[in-house]
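Our platform keeps sequence and structure together, in a single record for each protein. Such a record has a labelled line for the sequence and another for the backbone structure tokens. The tokens are whole numbers drawn from a learned vocabulary of local backbone shapes. The remainder of this section carries one protein's record, kept here as part of the documentation:
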Amino acid sequence: MSTAYVLIVFAVVILLMIILISKCKVNAAIGILISALILAIGLKTPWVDIESTINGGFSGTIKSVAIVIFLGCTMGTVLEKTGAAVRITKWAISLVGEKNMIWAIALSSAILGIPIFADTVVILLIPIVSLLAVQTKKSMMSYGTALYLGALVTASLVPPTPGPVSAAALLNVPLGQAILWGIIVAIPSVIGATLYCMTLKTPVAPKEEFLSAAKESENVELPSLGKSLAPILLPLGLIFLNTVVSVILPETPIANFCSFIGSPLAALFSGCIMSLFLTGKNWKSKMVLNDWVNDGINAAAMPIIVTGMGGALAVFVKNAGVADKIAEIIANSPFPAILIPIVIAALIHVVTGSNSLAVMTAAALVEPMLTTLGISPVAAFLACGTGALMFKHANSSGFWVTVSMSNMDVNQGIRAVGGASTVAGFVGAVLTCILVFLHVI
């Protein structure tokens, strides 16, 4: 097969995948599976090898992330249902004061976006944010967008949210490194988006129903701040501890012990156990030990399947040398290699509306190119995460959740959510490029 033929087949299949998911509303997992099958046939993979290759790519990808995603979603479910999310938000408000309320909203949202999907963060906190908008006489264009963007940034860049967990696994980035660098890039991205939100001053009043809900919930007893933060901080701390000890005391008994407790599985399971303290006397109930876990399984199922399908697609890309051919063309051109994963993730996100899908799929497509492109897995991880933030608009569920609940119209939503997400992605992408050019990553 000629290089031109291989590249044309690859381009057509990727375009087909995007059309199936975005225009035909085909489920992402099915859309990627169809694309993988067509790519296999188009690249003349022997018929008898197609099924085994797909199964191998699928299982090889999810074996290191499936349980981690499940545990992360389960922990997030407990934080949602126990009021821990509201407690963290109220703490952030007391920390910064009324004059800096928008920073409290962005801070609490960014923290909660680590274990909880961004859409869910908005649904959970929109009543209290609506009340704050009235008290401070600010527009919901500003407050509602800041609420969404904080969580959106960390959900794209910081594990254990499914998108970055999957991208880290696909790119073979240790989870400790992914968390550390994800946080480093997420902080300025959130700051940039929040500064943009502060420029949104078109008057938009909150919905009355959320004001009523906020007032009714004021007397609800919430868990303590320590209990609310512990399930998030404990896993992160254990993973960081493992990273540090493995460098300072390599191949020692304590390093071996830390490698277990700081492994993604053990660390997140510790977070899940810690979250039981939020449930009080209900921790032994069927509701907590069974029903809430089922909710976590339901939330985890889709990311796990999509990640596996992305791995299956990547196998055919790798086997046919598609990635090498593309990478060689780029390597021999003046186009900076680090922009490739940024552009791929941005295109998939803009067309499909899903930042999680963009992060996962871009990582799967870019991984085979890394050696030829000459960029590190960490750099590719950050590039995929920041590219997947670019221009959130009307084909995204998160866009509609935020716009409708914040009482904005579509044009206001495009200017607010679309603009803020693009600023966040641009800031993160620029920082990633600087880190690459300085040879830090």
